[in-house]
Amino acid sequence: MNIKRIFALGLCLMASACTSLPGSAPRAFANTLGMSMVALPAGTFVMGSEEPVESLHKAYPLAENYRLDNLSDEAPAHAVRITQPFYMAATEVTVGQFRQFVQLSGYVPESIADGTGGYGYNAQYDASKSARGDAFEGRDVRYSWQNPGFAQTDAHPVVNVTWGDAQAMAAWLSKKEGRSYRLPTEAEWEYAARAGTRTRYHCGDDPTCLLAVANTFDEAAKPYWPQFAANALPGNDGYAFTAPVASFAPNAFGLYDMHGNAWEWTQDLYGEDYYAHSPVDDPRGPEDGNVYVRRGGSWHTWSLYARSSYRNWNSPQTRYTLVGIRLVMDAPAAN
Ligand SMILES: [Ca+2]
Ligand SMILES: [Ca+2]
Predict the structure, then answer these.
(1) CA–CA separation, 43 and 297 (whole Å)
(2) Which region among 14-18, 198-202, 230-234, 245-249 has the lowest average model confidence (pLDDT)?
(3) Ligand nearest to the CA of 217
(4) 10-14, 31-35, 241-245: which range is least confident on average?
(5) Which residues form the signal peptide (predicted)?
(6) Which residues crowd ion ligand 2, with CB under 5 Å?
(7) Domain residue spans of the chain
(8) Which ligand is nearest to the CA of 210?
(9) Is the pLDDT of residue 14 over 70?
(10) Cα(141)–Cα(222) distance, integer angstroms
(11) Integer Cα distance of 258 and 162 in angstroms
(12) Given Cys at both, which of 87, 111, 188, 243 links 215, Cβ 3.0 to 4.6 Å?
């Protein structure tokens, strides 16, 4: 990755309220686990979307009306100020990084600790015959972060990990390095994904621009789920399941796979009407709730749901073939 180029493009892109890092703080560094942590400037952006249903219908003609009506939690679009620079991992947490964390810390991931396992892809599995109608087999002890039922190397994004697993990893890294790691807030996540853009994706408004920047549900994935064939992105991104992280072009902040590959847990509880009353400065989600926000879409996600503004959620115990982790780190305070 060309750090100079990224910062020429990305630093203070929003311009209106840029707070600089302390002079001694690096623009990017590799941490204990080899994660590339990239500095993002403070700034202001417009969070959410109020794109009319008619406009969405033109872009996503196959989406039923109820799906478009259900996007109302993305409104109102509203100004948000991220008041402090922070670091974000350039990629999703990889299988290799998660393995190092588990080995060095002794932490037992929830799918193993609670004895119920995770989810997995099984070509013989028939969703219509399952009690829950899930697209994947599970929970089953055969599946965990180590085995989602499809091939993965150490360079693939770890999946089948819970919100609690992410908390444990951040806490361990923080202690190990004397830094402050955590999940991004929902606002930080969208600010980072947009990297100064107002379009549906950081690559533009046309869903097919995803082919250059994201692993989503495309023609490579279509043969495995013929029932969803019509929703496949027209074009081939080369991956039916997860792709090694950073296989596609980054956004202007130098962040990879903000659309697709693995959904990313955020720190925030989900509030359907939260945008109507959230603070302008550093919103942190509602005080109460049962489910945490995940963002960005996955390798199995239709383009409608891979948009920068799309919000989804799960209970913190959820472990799934589509959901992974990306960490952020607070920038050190200026002396
Ligand atoms: Ca794909
Ligand atoms: Ca992702």
Answers:
(1) 24
(2) 14-18
(3) 1
(4) 10-14
(5) 1-30
(6) 257, 261, 296
(7) 3-330
(8) 1
(9) no
(10) 27
(11) 19
(12) 243
Instruction: In whole angstroms, give the CA distance from residue 141 to residue 117.
Output: 4
pLDDT band of 13, cuts 50, 70, 90: very low
Q: Which amino acid is at 6?
A: I
Tell me the CA–centroid distance for residue 128 and ligand 1, in Å.
23
The CA distance from 151 to 241, in Å, is: 8
Q: What is the pLDDT of residue 7?
A: 40
Which ligand is in closest contact with the Cα of 157? 2
Instruction: State the DSSP H helix or E strand holding residue 80, giving kind and residue range, or none if neither.
Output: strand 78-82
The pLDDT confidence band at residue 23, using thresholds 50, 70 and 90, is confident
What is the C-alpha separation between 330 and 84, in angstroms, rounded? 8
On average, the pLDDT of the chain sits at 93
Distance 98 CA to ligand 1 centre (A): 23
Cβ(192)–Cβ(6) under 8 Å?
no
Residue given tokens 């910062």 in the structure block: 7
Q: Is the dihedral of CA 18, 22, 28, 32 positive or negative?
A: negative
Residues 6 or more apart in contact with residue 246 via CB below 8 angstroms: 1, 90, 91, 256, 257
Tell me: domain 3-330, CATH 3.60.21.10, correct? no
Model confidence pLDDT, tens digit, residues 152-203? 999 999 999 999 999 999 999 999 999 999 999 999 999 999 999 999 999 9
Largest CA distance in the chain: 61
